[in-house]
Amino acid sequence: MYIEGSSVYPLIEQSDKSRVAGKTGYALFPSGPAGPGTTVAVRGLAIAKRSVNPKAAWLFLQWASGSEMVRRALLGDVLVGRESVWQDSSLWSGDIPSDLVQSFREAGQIGTPNWAPPLSAVTAAREAVGKVITAAIRGEDLRAAVDEADRRLNEILDPIDRR
Q: CB of 127 within 8 A of CB of 135?
């Protein structure tokens, strides 16, 4: 069993080096007491606040995320987030495993983009976790490193809880 996002499927199914192509099943991550555990990786396009030409950027975003471009992506075996495009099975039938299609579409209905706590202090959070890894590699007091990382991460996340 392997827990991964949908972006790895071409490596599993379409790689010449894959020993599991055609032998792999796909399913949603099981639900638990708090509800579905399925996440949806959200890829986004944005217009910079200081964009020199925001109108052109907005037109580009509409084109890039519009039905026609998303259809083209699906025809190229790129798993897309636009449900209306998935409804045309001629765009994906045969090339993408049907259980992957089913789980991906269902994930789009029940999944959450919250795969990790939202934070802007990414570097500080990585540094806190990195210190634990470094302590483990060096054979240092792992409990002390974990406790310090826990304290630091809670400090970083605390302002988020107050919103």
A: no
